[in-house]
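User: Teach me something about this protein's shape.
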Amino acid sequence: MKLKLGFVGLGKMGQALALRAIQSGYTVYGYNRTKSKVDSIRDRVEILPSISDVVEKSDVLLVAVTDDEADEDVILGNHGISDYIRPNKMIIDFSTISPIMSKYINEKLKRKNAYRLEVPLIGGPDKALRGELIALIGGDRSKYEEMSDLIKTFAIRTIYAGDIGDALSLKLAFNLLVAGYAELIAEGLAFVQKMKVDPRLFVYLINASGYKTEFSEIKGQKMLVSNYEPTFYLKHMKKDLGLISKVADKYNIYLPVHSALWSTYTAATEYGLAEEDYSAILEYLLKINKLKE
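Assistant: First, the predicted structure itself:
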């Protein structure tokens, strides 16, 4: 018999993961702190009124929330998972949080004799629905091996990174690359437009070269027509850059390009683009450079 899964956190990614689990034959229960966000999936996911109910009914708990504060709250806060979890029960935490917070949560859970794997994901909700994510795993290897079939429900590729904190360090490094790539394409588009060159030629050039990526092929085309429908919110990219700042400050890591990206994504968020896709960094640059009203 397949495991009963309890999802805590049903935003865009949490919903996609829950629906993928249902498609794969799992029984799924869900809880979300903001009740209105789950209205669209109530007909497919059994939404429970409290975390305690999810813990009670589920064999494995899967957490997908936004940031350090939310993760700490749903796991360690009042009426959080740790208040109800039984010994030897497993938490798979998909949230992108700081390695520092992840280590702290695991230390606290040890007192409950509960287990937790950090499993940050590469890819958006569409890939989650198709089971085509990349999963990075940090934590006890034997526990990962026990949970590998479940994790592979969502991921076409899994990478075991090592101890708690290691997978999240990899994920943040990857998102630093992604933020930089989006920023550089946006700057290139702003530059050629200021020089009165057709920006479509710039995107065509990238995609005809060895620097073509899924981003340049898909989002590059959307950026040309100001389509910033979010697969990953700009505010979440800013959040991840902030997590990198926190870790870099603690471990005294010099990251000059990151500092510039943090400044630009922060400014774009304050400019009103927080709820747009992170590729909307272009919109900010166009307005700052007086290329758009």
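Now, about its shape. The mean pLDDT is 97. The chain has two domains: 4-163, 169-288. If you'd like, I can walk through any region in more detail.
User: That's plenty for now, thanks!
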